[in-house]
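[Archive record]
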Amino acid sequence: MSDYKTILGIVSIVVALASYSIYLRGIYKGQTKPHAFSWLIWGVLEAIGFAAQVYGHAGPGSYATAATAIICFTTAGIGFWKGEIKFVRFDWISLGGAFLAIALWLITKNPFYSVILITLADTIGFLPTYRKSYHLPFSEPLITYGLSSLKEGLALIALSSFTFITAFYIGEVAIANLVFIAMVLIRRKQLQKISHA
């Protein structure tokens, strides 16, 4: 049984690498414009999520979280250089809110509360990308977010210990990506109707 979960954990890493390679390729071609704030927040949160999963004995289910943390920090660095660099007040508020949630986690030092707080911070951290993509819905490759949801789903199945602490954050990330995809697809259709009117 543990071998099966290890294989799923490894597959989730492969899916993550495929997902982010598509995203990084889009940045290189100038088609994708990452919002650096979101990716920075996600990197910090993935690192915290990985620590919480290790504490909760998540096993192979934590592999993808560790890989994602590294990729998020890399994308954030690229985002400050080549991505969305017009930060509006909403973006700064989102950044502050996300880091406030992280600071509260550091104060509590409780795995249960940390998962709740990093999940809240992840949701807030997604807001700058939601805002940007609402106005520029073709600036994000949706396949990356779809593969990210798949990766999180595989990671959930691969968890050695399926508890609130090990599973809640992963589940939220999967759902947030699916909601983002739906929003962008709806927005793309709206803009196409306007352009054809």
Summary: The helical segments are 2-29, 36-55, 63-82, 89-108, 111-135, 142-158, 164-196. The two ends are 57 Å apart (CA to CA).
